[in-house]
Amino acid sequence: MGPNIKITIIALVSLLGSLLNLLAIERPDGDGSLEKIPDQPKGGILREDQKEGAADKAEAAPKPLPAEKVAYLGVRGDESSDALRMHLGLEGGLLLRTVRPSSPAGLAGLKQLDIIVSVDGKGLTDQVSLRKVITSYNPGDEVTLKIIRRGETIEQ
After folding, report:
1. What CA–CA distances, in Å, run from 36 to 27, 77, 154?
2. Which domains are assigned to the chain?
3. C-alpha Rg value of the chain to the nearest Å
4. Model confidence pLDDT, tens digit, residues 58-107
5. How far, CA to CA in Å, does 135 sit from each of 40, 96, 142?
């Protein structure tokens, strides 16, 4: 068992204004990169006082909505195979394929081929279960990960 190291989750911020111009999606090929969605038509979401006929058109310009912050770990992985789980005596786990170097996970020392078994004691089976657990936290929260690296259990 290694040292207990906490990982601080950072915010992934998307800004909404008169048009959606900073919305990104994960690429379906699973490489972990983000792709910008083309700008949406102008108009956006208007308050009642910004609709047609507002007294002062300059004041009627749409105002940006508050930024939405989402917890982010910075890894991409696959469900660990049955053979690997049986060999290591695991019930589940996410085998890391990609760890972004400047992400919270990268800065905490997670490495490609680590297996994340749990986050704060909540078991993982795949990328979807990791996303559900991580997004239940707020940006800046600290979590403890139980990982398997080269057959050894480490909590960090």
Report:
1. 10, 22, 36
2. 18-63 (no CATH), 73-155 (2.30.42.10)
3. 20
4. 555 566 656 667 888 899 998 888 888 888 888 889 999 999 999 899 99
5. 26, 18, 12
Both tokens of 84, joined, read 């690997």
Give this prediction's pTM.
Answer: 0.58
Q: In which band, very low, low, confident or very high, does the pLDDT at 39 lie, cut at 50, 70 and 90?
A: very low
* H or E element that contains 127: helix 127-134
What's the DSSP call for residue 83? Answer: H
Residue pointed to by tokens 């049955």 = 82
Token pair in block for residue 31:
């490489």
Q: Contact 124/94 with Cβ under 8 angstroms?
A: yes
Matching residue, tokens 């139980």: 146
